[in-house]
């Protein structure tokens, strides 16, 4: 039976090549869209690695051409922390979660290198963000006596730099080995390891991170200070106004912008979803057009083969066998198109394309294969029923 189907397909190779091409491109489109959706879906279900609820971010700016001494800034933070409804505050760098700001660098240890996001963080940072420590501890006053810059790293960075060996107490540097790499401030002492974090958006994968300790007695003057504030549940605009007035009370030349981190997350989510939704709509549009094309081609195919169908019926073939023949032909054609798509798709996990693991690609291949067969079967079902219903006498008389 299978050999007979291949013979029929070969006899109509020009028409079937069009069907095989449509199946091939349908598979490629479904594979691409599926890989994207599976990847972002997997990322969405993964934990963020920190608690963004009830966290606000402040951006305190000095007046134009002015700077804010660290001692004066610390006084402002103490007054903000003393406000009713404020749990704790922390000083950090500008690349806070869910905003369009990044700061990364490449670090190295004994030949291993990794690109990681770099954050400045004071001793209270983990109380605000509630990072989960896997090993070691967060920064504390005892680190003031350290000859190296204390850092906390994420688990994925730990695995890249140190593998299965111990990480606590190890010292790593920037990946370049110039003279500046030997300075104590450019040598980073690992004091703790935290869970992987996803700070870009809800659909982004975890990225390696390094939290460098902000020196509490630093005499540097700042132009802009970025502050994280954890507030009690249910706080709103009234507390935001109090915070702004408190900062302005120190010096009227300072300005404060207060934003809710969860609002930043939702805004970033909407921005990220736009290309994903656009890609999905485009993929759906292409698949619908391919399905309509397959349906039309099969319908035309039956109308062109009415004499053949009538002759088969006259020689004793049943309507069910005619229907199975058309479905079988279409499934064989589909298989040939899918095999071509598989040859292309398997290159992605084999080559590690886009730095993604193999699992999303394999799931996308499986989903695309099932979807193509389902679409093809649905498109071939009604035309095959029409073929089965052709009466031999009518078909032969028409010819």
UniProtKB/TrEMBL annotation:
Keywords: Cell membrane, Membrane, Transmembrane, Transmembrane helix. GO terms for cellular component: plasma membrane. It is found in: Cell membrane. InterPro entries: ABC3_permease_C (IPR003838), MacB_PCD (IPR025857), Macrolide_Exporter_MacB (IPR050250). It is a multi-pass membrane protein. GO terms for molecular function: transmembrane transporter activity. Residues 45-236 form the MacB-like periplasmic core domain. The chain crosses the membrane at residues 20-40, 273-302, 331-354, 360-381. Residues 281-392 form the ABC3 transporter permease C-terminal domain. This is Uncharacterized protein. It comes from Hymenobacter lapidarius.
